[in-house]
């Protein structure tokens, strides 16, 4: 009875926290004045939006750009994961950390601007190429579709790498070896053994990535907007930036996401529905690396090249920018230490630093406990609330981040008194990040639990261990690589998220990411970069500590 | 390896702690300097000092170059902390509306564009400012800072709108002399405009003033609209794009947001066009009803309207005030010598009727 109540209470609480902001977004789409202004029920927003040719153009651009970027990012991530976990490429642990650094490294907004400065027609790369090869015209122009694809791919491949690596690492090589010994070719083994075993993690990550690309905003704004490359998110931003903001139109356009995410959830259920993906069983497994011969130096070089292009180049541009009087302007005597003096003497910095630490550690830790519980309930426990719970866990990704932040404002600040009492506090911001991290956290933990065989738990329970003891001694150690990976991702995303809490902070709850955004709004780019570099230092410190702690846990399990 | 890692963390923490600001004495230097001081005002000042702080949702005070000097000057004068939350006009308004709907009040003052503040006024979220001493010094102002008959919304700064060029990319001989020159195909794809061209945008006000003064026609904007532009999302970003040389010419921007970039070496120059240069009141400010620090809020807005506050603000911003006793801090190279002054009356600034707006958007964008 207690179990029944606790399970359904969880569904109710989560359902409320997640669905209430979504309901406000929907309400805004059918209310002529926006939720906080006088108005009446009207579907004019839908009519205006869906009779405009720009909507369909933006929608089509969003879909094909997201699809291509998903394919390119997943291909790159799978290659990196394969090299690092399944081959004898030298210095693999070091290489893995380098890929992590790409994700941990830099907030996406200044990274996109860094690429703009590097590879626009007048950028440093073109200048170098034109000088070196005596060319008259620039070779590359990152302010284009391919530029958006390029920058998105090299950044998000690192995230996909983090998400699929545990699955690659946990895969028992003996399954592939058995296939080969039974006479199957390499291709057949990949098709019939490797791909199906990895499909929950790969497909799940691909779907997450597709949604993230569809929601993506910063890269498209920096590298597409000046040339009228509109995607759905930049169109929504366009509508919200007009005066007065076109809330009904923007919110009705957001409903497209709702349909798209529902479609993807359905697709995932259909594809992965009742299949078995267990790779970690009671038999023990031996992830033996594939011997590449001299090719191992090629794979080593390719990963290093990836690191240089995706991290060193933009990082160097940003560090340089933090010492420039005007970022991107090569004037006489362009450098100064003044930017750092101003930034480090800013009275708001220390409090923002402290708030950021509280918020990111809190949201990642509480979030992971919650998401693990959700993952367990939806994979291991047979009860009628499984599907609704799984459905709820996807919902925060049904609308773009910018719209979600408005949903939180309308529901949590303007809404019910017990929530508005938290208004302006760091607790409200933490609650928001718990909701926002739900799709990623619960999805990855579900994938990880799918891979762990039931017999391990059953053996422990048959031997007399309690459920909690079994969870702590059997499941938790096996799930810890995925747990730690997702903890780090949530920690980093919370540190770097500049949109979600934009409407919710006050002076007392200001975090580094909003300080970054405040500088950005005023074109104080040099100050913003410095805040971005401090955020990078925090992300890397957190990740190193988590990995060290995590590795020790695994080895003592 | 581990040793170096912990050392690095320690260095970061020590650096942050060392660089954190020293505690300011914060003692007020005086509270006796209001020229029209009355007992009620004295009481308000005392009450404000007890409240101890004021929270401003601000579209104009949030840059690092402005917030620091302003906060320090206000604290030194009254011992009251100024907390600035940087917002865009629409963002600030939505935050205030939500806080009022949830009855959880955080902001004391709001500044931004006129339509946003007048919406706040219409929703009953502002208070009248007629009793502020600095606003009663009528002889000190070249243009009255009070914008509405009920005296809820004020504006103390002229917004100057004009085209700008990047001086490294455009030679003096090639500078356009008139808006008509911008139709020349050589500027196709090389002009920056702020997009979306909302009704509070530079583009919209330029359109209004030129067309309403019969200096240009709708046909001109239709032709301009068919050209390619370099689009930029905000004033600040578009100015930075011009300074970096992403494009050589900005169709219409403000000197206020250009001055901080000029101070950092931006090679930019305003153009005085044949048709005229636009001056109008666009930076508006108000005190919010149900402000958690109502006295501190009024004290702050009054100080902002005083000679001292205007000097502190415009010196930091690098532009000019409507107060006669405040010097023009606009850098010499950014001061426009207008061939004609186009004053846009405030009623016209507020002209947000759907037809005008739709007409403008149709001219510029075709599909809107």
Quick description:
The complex is a heterodimer of chains A (557) and B (368). With 557 residues, chain A is an all-alpha fold.
3D architecture notes:
The complex is a heterodimer of chains A (557) and B (368). Chain A is mainly α. Chain A has helices at 2-29, 44-50, 53-86, 92-105, 108-119, 124-132, 145-170, 173-181, 186-215, 218-223, 232-241, 247-272, 295-322, 338-344, 348-379, 386-394, 401-413, 417-420, 426-451, 454-462, 467-496, 512-521, 525-556. The longest helix of chain A has 34 residues, at 53-86. Chain B is of the alpha/beta class and 368 residues long. Chain B has helices spanning 2-19, 39-51, 64-78, 89-101, 114-122, 202-212, 218-226, 235-244, 255-263, 294-305, 307-317, 346-349, 354-365; strands at residues 53-58, 81-86, 109-112, 158-166, 191-194, 230-232, 249-254, 268-270, 277-281, 284-287, 341-343. The chains are: A mainly alpha (557), B alpha/beta (368). The interface between A and B is large, with 66 and 69 residues.
| Class from helix and strand fractions of chain A | mainly alpha
Biggest beta sheet summary of chain A: none
The helix/strand series of chain A, from N terminus to C terminus, equals: HHHHHHHHHHHHHHHHHHHHHHH
The largest chain-to-chain contact, stated as pair and per-chain residue counts, equals: A-B, 66 and 69 residues
Overall strand count of chain A:
0
Spatial separation of the terminal alpha carbons of chain B: 60 Å
> What structural category do the secondary elements of chain B indicate?
alpha/beta
For the sheet with most strands of chain B, the description reads:
7 strands, mixed
Uncertain stretches of 5 or more adjacent residues of chain B: 7-35
> Total helix count of chain A?
23
Order of helices and strands of chain B: HHEHEHEHEEHHEHEHEEEHHEHH
Mean pLDDT of chain A: 84
């Amino acid at each position: 009875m207690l179990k029944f109540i606790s399970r359904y209470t969880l569904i109710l609480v989560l359902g409320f926290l997640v669905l209430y902001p979504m309901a406000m977004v929907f309400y805004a789409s059918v209310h002529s004045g926006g939720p906080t202004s006088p108005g009446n029920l009207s579907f004019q927003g839908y009519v205006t939006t869906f009779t405009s040719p720009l909507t369909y153009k933006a929608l089509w651009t969003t879909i094909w750009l997201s699809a291509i970027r998903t394919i390119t990012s997943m291909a790159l991530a799978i290659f990196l994961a394969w090299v690092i976990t399944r081959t004898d490429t030298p210095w693999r642990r070091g290489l893995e950390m380098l890929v992590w650094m790409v994700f941990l490294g830099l907030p996406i907004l200044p990274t996109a601007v860094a690429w703009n400065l590097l590879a626009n027609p007048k950028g440093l790369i073109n200048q170098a190429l034109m000088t070196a090869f005596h060319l008259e015209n620039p070779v590359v122009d990152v302010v284009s579709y391919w530029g958006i694809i390029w920058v998105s791919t090299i950044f998000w491949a690192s995230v996909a790498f983090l998400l699929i690596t545990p699955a690659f690492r946990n895969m028992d090589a003996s399954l592939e070896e058995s296939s080969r010994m039974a006479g199957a070719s390499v291709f057949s083994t990949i098709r019939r053994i490797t791909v199906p075993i990895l499909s929950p993690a790969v497909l799940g990550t691909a779907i997450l990535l597709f949604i993230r690309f569809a929601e993506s905003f910063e890269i498209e704004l920096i590298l597409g907007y000046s040339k009228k490359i509109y995607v759905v998110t930049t169109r929504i931003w366009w509508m919200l930036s007009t005066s007065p903001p076109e809330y009904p139109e923007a919110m009705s356009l957001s409903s497209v996401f709702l349909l798209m995410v529902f479609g993807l959830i359905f697709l995932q259920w259909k594809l992965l529905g009742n299949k078995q993906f267990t790779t970690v069983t009671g038999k023990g497994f031996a992830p033996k690396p594939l011997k590449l011969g001299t090719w191992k130096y090629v794979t080593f070089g390719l990963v290093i090249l990836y690191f240089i292009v995706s991290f060193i180049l933009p990082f160097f541009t940003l560090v340089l920018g933090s010492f420039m009087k005007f970022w991107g302007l090569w004037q006489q005597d362009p450098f100064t230490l003044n930017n750092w003096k101003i930034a480090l003497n800013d009275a708001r910095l220390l409090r923002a630093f402290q708030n950021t630490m509280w918020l990111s550690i809190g949201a990642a830790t509480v979030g992971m406990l919650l998401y693990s519980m959700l993952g367990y309930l939806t994979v291991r426990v047979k009860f009628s609330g499984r599907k609704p719970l799984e459905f709820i866990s996807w919902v925060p990704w049904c609308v773009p981040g910018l719209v979600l932040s408005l949903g939180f404002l309308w529901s949590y600040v303007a809404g019910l008194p017990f929530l508005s009492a938290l208004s302006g506090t760091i607790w409200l911001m933490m609650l928001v990040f718990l909701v926002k991290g739900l799709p990623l956290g619960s999805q990855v933990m579900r994938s990880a639990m799918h891979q762990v065989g039931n017999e391990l738990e059953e053996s422990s329970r048959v031997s007399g261990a309690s459920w909690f003891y079994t969870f702590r001694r059997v499941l938790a150690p096996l799930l810890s690589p995925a747990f730690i990976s997702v903890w780090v991702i949530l920690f980093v995303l919370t540190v770097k998220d500049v949109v979600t809490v934009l409407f919710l902070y006050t002076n007392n709850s200001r975090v580094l990411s909003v300080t970054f955004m405040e500088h950005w709004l005023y074109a104080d780019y040099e100050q913003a970069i410095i805040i971005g570099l401090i955020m990078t230092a925090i992300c890397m410190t957190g990740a190193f500590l988590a990995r060290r702690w995590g590795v020790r846990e695994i080895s003592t399990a | 390896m581990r040793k170096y890692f912990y050392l690095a963390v320690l260095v970061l923490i020590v650096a942050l702690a060392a660089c954190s600001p020293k505690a300011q004495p914060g003692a007020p230097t005086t509270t006796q300097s209001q020229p029209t001081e009355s007992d009620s005002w004295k009481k308000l000042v005392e009450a404000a000092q007890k409240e101890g702080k004021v929270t401003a949702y601000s579209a104009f005070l949030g840059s690092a170059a402005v917030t620091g000097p302003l906060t320090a000057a206000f604290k030194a004068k009254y011992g009251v902390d100024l907390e600035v939350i940087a917002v865009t006009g629409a963002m600030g308004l939505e935050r205030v509306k939500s806080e009022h709907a949830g009855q959880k009040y955080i902001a004391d003052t709001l500044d931004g564009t006129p339509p946003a503040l007048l919406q706040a006024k219409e929703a009953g979220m502002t208070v009248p400012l007629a009793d502020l001493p600095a606003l009663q010094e009528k002889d000190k102002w070249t243009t009255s800072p009070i914008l509405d008959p009920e005296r809820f919304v004020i504006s103390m700064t002229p917004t100057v709108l004009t085209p700008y060029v990047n001086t490294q990319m455009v030679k003096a001989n090639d500078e356009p002399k008139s808006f008509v020159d911008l139709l020349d195909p050589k500027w196709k794809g090389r002009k920056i405009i702020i997009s979306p061209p909302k009704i509070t945008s530079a583009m919209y006000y330029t359109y209004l003033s030129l067309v309403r003064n019969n200096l240009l026609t709708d046909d001109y904007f239709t032709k301009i609209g068919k050209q390619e532009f370099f689009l930029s999302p905000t004033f600040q970003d578009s100015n930075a794009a011009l300074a970096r040389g992403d494009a050589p010419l900005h169709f219409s921007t403000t000197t206020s947001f250009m001055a901080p970039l000029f101070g950092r070496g931006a090679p930019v120059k305003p153009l005085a066009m044949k048709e005229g240069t636009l001056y109008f009141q666009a930076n508006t400010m108000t005190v919010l009803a149900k402000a958690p620090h109502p006295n501190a809020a009024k004290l702050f807005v009054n100080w902002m309207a005083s000679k001292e506050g205007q000097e502190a603000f415009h010196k930091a911003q690098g532009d000019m005030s409507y107060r006669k006793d405040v010097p023009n801090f606009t850098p010499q190279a950014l001061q426009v010598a207008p061939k004609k002054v186009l004053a846009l009356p405030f009623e016209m600034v507020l002209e947000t009727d759907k037809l005008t707006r739709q007409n403008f958007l149709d001219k510029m964008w075709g599909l809107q």
